[in-house]
Amino acid sequence: GAPRSRDPPASLPQGPEAGRGSRTGRELLRAQQDFPRAGKGKGPGRNAVTLERTKGSEILFGMAPCWLALARERRALFRLFLKEQRGGSGRPLRAELALQAAARGVPVLHLPGRALDALCRGRPHQGVCLEAAPLPFRSLRDAEEPRRGDGESGRRLWLVLEHIQDPMNMGALLRAAYFLGVDRVVATHSNSCPLTPIVSKASAGAMEVFDVYSTDDLQGFLKAKIAEGWEVVGTVSRPEEVEDVPVISCSEFQWDKPLIVVIGSEGEGLSLETQLQCHRMLSIPPGRALHPGIDSL
């Protein structure tokens, strides 16, 4: 899986504009006095100072993840980093982010674009990074049943992710689940990608507003939900490899009771133990003859 961010301290260029107008920025400028000025010394680090990260923090990047993290405040927030704008007022959304951060007591630093590149290791940040505490999975023991309207009890839909390890896939699944109205997402605790900044970016920020739960006993969890009257369906890319569970196309599937859809890992799919818990398996037929090596959506 993708480990939580443990980035080393990032290198930030010198300059009087760095961190203008914030307490943290003044501290950074004081620290610069102990380093040679730009153009002096040798080596690629001659223009850089070191920014100490808050212990255990990570760097969110991109407009949507940072905006929604500030709006929801589900995690501790330490500093907002914005790309400095020379000779202009800057982009309105960044100015609004700065106001949001100030209202929440989060220091704001204005830095050159290459400094933000260093903070997020060259990932696409759109001129915005946010230092924050990691966002953990929530425990199912603390979960409350979503409130449903009359006649909706049979339309509950949960998504279960078994051993999803690619953070881009995890983020895409969370984004789709949130948009399509999935009531709850549950991931296996072991052998799964944690909720990293890459996941948040790939989810277009949905991870910041959508609780993601975890379980360390997937089989026990599924058995308990089946006993409560839920239907469990798995997903499969190669129907011919499934022997003990009926497989149907998504276009033929109908449901009239609470439903759990289980998606397996990128390389192995669903484990045999999980397949045997499923009432049915779903497949999405391809719209063309697939090239070898491409077998799923």
UniProtKB/TrEMBL annotation:
InterPro entries: Alpha/beta_knot_MTases, MRM1, MRM1_MeTrfase_dom, Ribosomal_eL30-like_sf, SpoU_MeTrfase, SpoU_subst-bd, tRNA_m1G_MTases_N. Residues 1-47 are annotated as: Disordered. One of its GO terms (molecular function) is RNA binding. It comes from the Eukaryota. Keywords: Methyltransferase, Mitochondrion, rRNA processing, S-adenosyl-L-methionine, Transferase, Transit peptide. Pfam families: SpoU_methylase (PF00588), SpoU_sub_bind (PF08032). Residues 59-138 form the RNA 2-O ribose methyltransferase substrate binding domain. CDD domains: SpoU-like_MRM1. It is found in: Mitochondrion. Its main location: mitochondrion. GO terms for cellular component: mitochondrion. Belongs to the class IV-like SAM-binding methyltransferase superfamily. RNA methyltransferase TrmH family. This is rRNA methyltransferase 1, mitochondrial.
